[in-house]
Each structure stands twice: as structure tokens, then as C-alpha cells.
Amino acid sequence: MLNPMSEEQEPIQNAEENVEAEENFAQMLASSFDFSYSPPRRGEIREATILQIDEREIIVDLGAKQDGIVPSQDLERMEAGFRESLEAGANVPVYVINPRDQNDNLIVSINMGLQRYDWENARELLSSQSAVDVKVSGFNKGGALVRWKRLEGFIPSSHLVSTNLRLERREAMLELTGKTLGVKVIEVDQDRRRLIFSEREAQKEWRARQKAKLLAELKVGDVVDGVVTGLRDFGAFVNIGGADGLIHVSELAWHRVDHPRDILHIGEEIKVYVLNLDRQTNRIALSRKRLLSDPWDDAQYRYHEGQLVEGYVTNVVDFGAFVALEDGLEGLLHLSEMGDGALKEPHSYVKKGDNLSLRISHMEPEKRRVGFTQRWGTELGSEKAPADSKRGG
Q1: Strand partners, 282
Q2: Are 363 and 305 in contact (CB under 8 A)?
Q3: Considering all CA atoms of the chain, what is the largest pairwise distance in Å, rounded to the nearest integer?
Q4: pLDDT tens, 131-142?
Q5: Tell me: the pLDDT tens digits for 239-258?
């Protein structure tokens, strides 16, 4: 026979039963409500499972109280191949466009959800500095609008190199629309949906690779075709198969060249001689004059003192003017040999580009020197000075 419970034990047992009842109630309450549930928020990206695919919409489950709807506009933006690959049960990222529209529908976008991966790829490209292709879709006053994967991007005008400089800006940008350009990512800001590309930076890398390739293939003494791409005081840049080499101003011609624009123009096709290759600095030195006949090679057989010649002024200095003959032979017309020899300074008498009738006053082929005169003395012959001894160029 069991002993009856003492009066002291009964309150303890009642307290234990109350605690157990409260725990059971809490478990029942927790099972009835999911306190971890977070409702969809506008702009949020969630993983979803496709439940149903209709002609005008797709129904997805994204763990919300109601299913999400992918509208027809979003389906139309999808690439045909990707749209056809979708099937019920597939997992896709979705972007919450509107948690509750006017019809209480949860509207989401697969396209914008997939852009998350494109932004991630863009950040990777920014880090790696790898080049990619983009398609020009339009333009504004600041530059070119482009498409890359599912993202809209932008190339500032200062980072474009494919525009046709011969056209007006609007015409040049219209010509560029629809073309594919090689670019590098230079800025990524997903929050502001800002994706900036540079064609110029990609071109720099491409030219560097092309120059390294050319340096490995070229040899000093090679003669190659090129196109003049730039003219500077110190020389001319010439593109030879995708990489630029430099013709120093002293290698442009056998005569003195004040500025490369005096004998070359941008876009001109010329042959050049490979003068030097520096594979450590990736520099290619070229020459134009090495492909021209050196006028001093046979000057002693073609010219003599007292000979009447035609030349043009290549430079005017305080003590006279340098004059080049048609074949490039260049010499000095000293101030004392100009006109009647009484001139105080040459600048008011001749200018660069003037054509002159002269006589050769002295020849020094071994020193590559020739002097000219306009003073018609008996020591150089008794012929009279030509009537047209100075003609404007």
C-alpha cells in the first residue's frame, strides 16, 4: 500500500507540473509561428524555385507567404535560349520589384536577379583588369552607352578611341552604335548601378602585347610598312602591325627637318627601316631616311663649285639660312652671302619654305658640308644673277 503524499511534497509537485505545462505551451506556440520569417523587401534578391511556367508569366516560390510572379515584361527581356532552358523545379535568383502591387501580387524579376552574378563578374574584372567585349547601344553627351551581359554600362568620351575624328561628334557616335568594342572595367558601383568601361585602357594593353610580339619577330634592318599615327616636335609615331614605333626627327630625312609635319601627315602610309629594338623597354626605333639615297654618296660627281642650283629654306637662324636641294643635300647660305652681302639679319629677307636660286660657293664632301651664295662674283663665273633669285614658297 502506497504511502499517502505528505502535505510538504504536494506543493513541489504542483510547481513542477506548472513548469512542464508552460514549456509545452511555448513549444506549441513556436511550432505555430516561424519567428525567423522575414517578408520580402523591395530590392532584395532571393533564391526561388520555379513552380509553374505559363506563356505570360512564371510562378516561383521564394519562401514567402505567397508565391512570386515573374511578369511578361521580364520574360521578353530574357535571351531566347535561356528562357527556353527554364523548367519547373529549377532554382533561380529573383529580384523583388514590388512586395505588394495594387492587386496584392508579389512581383519579382529573374533578369534582375541574374544581374547579381554579372555585378560579381564585373568586380572580378575590375580586380583582374581583364579585357571584355561590349556592344554600343547608344550615346549621350558624355560618351557611349553599352551593353555587357545583362547590365547597362558607359564609356566616357575621354576613354573612347574608336570614334572617327574626321566626322562631327554626333555622326561619329552614330557610326559607332551597334559596334563591338574591347574594353576594361574601371569602376563598379552596384548600389548606384554604375558600371564604367574604358576602351583606351584596353587598347593600351593590346598594344603592349602586340609590341612585345613584334619585338620578338622583328630584326634590326627589317623594312616594314607603317601608317603615321602621331607627329611631335621630337619625331613621328608610326604604327607597324598594331604597335607604334618612333622615327626620331633626325631620322626623317637627310636634310634638316624642323618639325615632322613638314614632310609627313597623319594617316600617311610609308615604309620604314627598323633601326633599333629595345626589348627591355618595349621600344622600337625606326628610320625613314635610311630608305632614301644619301645625297652625299655621289655629291662630288653631281655638284661643283660655281654651279647654279635651286633650293628651299629649311631653317632661318641669326647667322643665315639652311637650304636643302631637291635630293636632300643641305648646306648653309651665310648672312654675308645673302643678296649683296650687306644684310644685318636674315629673317626679313628669307623665311622657311622659300625657294631660292643659288650658286655653290664651296664643297667639302668628306665633311658633308656645302656652302651657298647669292653674290655673283667673277670667282664663281661671269654669268649674271638670275632675275628670280628669291621666290616665295
Answers
A1: none
A2: yes
A3: 165
A4: 999 999 999 988
A5: 998 788 999 999 999 888 88
CATH code at position 69: 2.40.50.140
- CB within 8 A of 364, min separation 6: which ones? 370
User: Cα 1 vs. chain centroid, distance in angstroms?
Assistant: 101
Closest CA to 327 of 304, 366, 294: 294
Q: Which residue, among 322, 372, 324, 317, has the nearest Cα to 347 in the 3D structure? A: 317
> Which are the contacts of 143, defined by CB distance < 8 A and separation ≥ 6?
154, 155, 156, 157, 158, 159, 160
| Pair 277, 215: CB distance under 8 Å | yes
Residue reference for cell 652671302: 337
* 314 and 262 belong to one structural domain: no
Q: How many domains does the chain have?
A: 4
**Rounded distance between C-alpha atoms, residue 351 and residue 62, angstroms:** 83
Q: Cβ(369)–Cβ(322) under 8 Å?
A: no
Q: What is the Cβ-side half-sphere exposure of residue 311, based on CA atoms within 13 angstroms?
A: 30
pTM score: 0.50
What residues make up the domain containing 108? 45-114
